[in-house]
Specification:
5-stranded mixed β-sheet; elongated; 426 residues
Length: 426
Amino acid sequence: MFTDKAKIFIKAGNGGNGAISWRREKYVPAGGPDGGDGGSGGDIIFRVDTGMTTLMDFRYKRKYAAGTGMDGAGQRKKGRDGDNIVINVPQGTLVRDAESNLIIADMSDPEKEVVVAKGGNGGWGNSHFATAVRQAPNFAKNGQRGEEREVILELKLLADVGLVGFPNVGKSTLLSMTTKAQPKIANYHFTTLEPNLGVVDLSDGRSFVMADIPGIIEGASEGVGLGHEFLRHIERTRLLIHVVDVSGIEGRDPIEDIDIINNELAAYDMALEERPQIIAANKTDIIQDQAAYEAFLEEMEKRGNEVITISAATGKNVDKLMKKAYEELSKLPPIVTFEPQMDLEAERFVDKSGKGYEIHRENDKFVITGSWIEAVGNSVTFDDNESLGYFQRALINRGVIEELISMGIKEGQLVQIGDLEFEFLF
């Protein structure tokens, strides 16, 4: 079964906690703090695997979690970093943020790697907090949480040329005659239930990738049949070969077939209406209605559409069609790639307010969110007065306390930072 869309949950590793430790040696009775830093959490990295052709693997595994950083230790020993997780996806996969539906990455470049969820930084050991005044800090920072999100993986095949047309018009036969692809072929409708890719080799180093795009019927743009699942693959193609059965053997009108398919393409994406097309009039070796065939050629000439008459089954004019396709491709720009719409670095380090935090009220509770405030809140050791004092000074210096007062907070009301809740005291 072909699978070209999947939703998975990814969780980068949390950073390890910093250590609270003291240097103790025989002749150094007051050696000072020597707590080491925690290790960083592992990242979730997406990488292109050119050997993959579907998203089938993600039907069976939907959660991915990277390794957690180890805690620091005495003698300023840093904890080991958590292991990264590399998630391989087929070339042409879009990675979208499930909540916003924005594109995070377009995995079209086989050399490309993207960190989609970054591991949390390790916390500082108490050796970082020693000053001339505070020579024995009895607190350290906890590690930061790793990023987590649901992402949607959407595979859009990377092909230069897309074969479109009604079922059973000979697209699969044409693909099998011109490439080493081996699509399932039979004389009944909907033999092809998944896209097939093949490389057309014209010798002298000239080649291009061609895909048989199945499932396009009347109503496909509205999701009839498997329309949406297959129409998305045409977005990446630079050129379309519109295969039409002109034999009349099934009593179909080839002009009407051309119009129905083109209307579905335009209804799905207006840009497809302008996509260059070559009309491939197939099954000319078994024409049953000569008058209808000639009327079709006459109508295409009136519209200015170039028609190449072929027989995919016998190979008639197939080489001519492929050479014409290569000639047209040489005039067209490269396959479109999708620019990321979500700036992960901005998401990580810049809050909407630019202050590092935002405050909003939920009934009688004040909820503070933001990258800076959550990092500070997670670093507090609440059973240590020095750590609490450090936390309070950070809130005062950043303007958080002043803003809470200006918003009308009263003594005893709850303040929430991440999973942490505490009562506000003047």
